[in-house]
Amino acid sequence: MAQIKHIAIATQDADATAKFYKEVFGLREIAKLDSPNAKGYYLSDGNINFAILDFQNDQVAGAEYGKTYSGIHHIGFEVESLEEIAEKMQAANSQPREDINQALGVGMPGARHDNVEVKYGGPDGVIIDVSETGWVGTRGLD
């Protein structure tokens, strides 16, 4: 069965975007990219290859996006402490997405849900889900 092992974010500021994910979530830099196609970074948590890419031409970015496109819709992180990550997100100027949290009934004290517990805004317009309980299917399917 296929497993998610790679997520890519298109950005216009690869340095700032990579810095955010390294500082807030502790991802490790495993490679730096500097090619005619893309500049950026490969980060990893040991399970997922997470590419931060500043595309240098429209062709490799894809005609529907182009090299000026930034972002994906959202990504999720399992964290050890919602309180600790809230402090780190605030320090990184990332605020809770109260509009989405309220619509979903998440992000409130004492509220626990499968998959996402709080949504935040991240760099490049990416929505970030955080959870202490994780996501279904991430610990096997038994």
The CATH C-level class name of the largest domain: Alpha Beta
Overall structural class, as computed from helix and strand content, comes to: alpha/beta
Our count of helices gives: 4
- Indicate the overall shape: globular
**Residue share in helix:** 10-25%
What does this entry look like structurally?
- With 142 residues, this protein is α/β, with parallel strands linked by helices.
- It has two domains: 1-72, 2,3-Dihydroxybiphenyl 1,2-Dioxygenase, domain 1, CATH 3.10.180.10; 73-137, no CATH class.
- It contains four helices and seven strands; from the N terminus they run E-H-E-E-E-H-E-H-H-E-E.
- Strands 1-4-3-2 form a four-stranded mixed β-sheet. A three-stranded mixed β-sheet has the order 5-7-6.
- A hairpin with a 3-residue loop joins strand 2 (28-34) and strand 3.
- The longest helix has 12 residues, at 14-25.
Task: Sum up the structure in keywords.
2,3-Dihydroxybiphenyl 1,2-Dioxygenase, domain 1; 3-stranded mixed β-sheet; 142 residues; alpha/beta; single chain; 2 domains; 4-stranded mixed β-sheet
Short note summarizing the structure:
This protein is an alpha/beta fold. Helices cover 23% and strands 28% of the residues.
Question: Would you spell out the secondary-structure blueprint of this structure?
Answer:
Blueprint (H helix, E strand, L loop, with lengths): L5 E5 L3 H12 L2 E7 L3 E7 L4 E7 L2 H4 L12 E5 L3 H10 L6 H7 L13 E4 L5 E5 L11
Parallel strand pairs: 1-4, 5-7
Antiparallel strand pairs: 2-3, 3-4, 6-7
